[in-house]
Amino acid sequence: MPTNYFEARLLLNPDFNEILMAELAEIGYESFVESNEGISAYIPENSFDAALLQQVVDNYQHLTPISVEYEQLETKNWNEEWERNYQPIEVAGRIRVRASYHLPDPSFEYDLVIDPKMSFGTGHHETTTLVMEQQLSLDHQNKSVLDVGSGTGILAILAEKLGANRLTAFDIEEWAYLNAIENAALNDCTHITVFQGTIADCPADIYDIVLANINRNILLQEIPTYVKFLKVSGTLIVSGFYEFDIADIVQKAEESGLKLIAQKTLNQWATLKFEKV
What we know:
By secondary structure, the protein is an alpha/beta fold. It is 30% helix and 32% strand. The strands form 3 sheets. The chain has a 7-stranded mixed beta sheet, with helices on both faces. α5 (154-161) links the parallel β8 (144-148) and β9 (166-171). α4 (126-136) packs parallel to α5 (154-161). The N and C termini lie far apart (52 Å). The model has no long low-confidence stretch (mean pLDDT 90).
């Protein structure tokens, strides 16, 4: 049965579109349409909270003028509407991310099938692309991987295709947890364990690689915990924040026993790669 949705329309400086989409995703918004005037964001009716929406807007009023209005939309199958505009993407000339209804392209080394259910993690967002690029430069063969806040499961799926043979992925949202399971099956992944929860629910273990594409505040809070799950000389790759947050993330990582190995930015978004020393 189709889900009822609310549409929130935010008028703001388009330079802030990406960061507002990330903030809205944190409170349940599932899909976005950008324009030169701002963004339109969509959330299931049962998750809509006007006060939370206004709080996000208020938090950025000191950086850019923002106005917001919202309305309940007529009943439609929004997954079908969204799928019409979902196109395959390419990463570093080696990875192609497509939906199951797109034909494969054998010219790419890695073919990832992601049916996203309107969630982040299709590879269309800069942070997902940045992390996947970093993964390509990392030896995954017979390695263990922890994917924090896994969303669609795309990073864990790529990790298995790169040779990892023990993978754990989790997300606090039920729809993301179920979607990651579906996508792992679509990609014939047999080494990924997915659960619903947070890092606090993760069984005690250590990994060669930890991936965390979340947001600045959670990273600053949880990086010391990620380090406990990481082997000595293991790799932590983080993204989900803007380049002006790099200094804070690096400081927290270094305080936690990590050494910065690489960094890259794309459209003001950033990713950092650390090694546990």
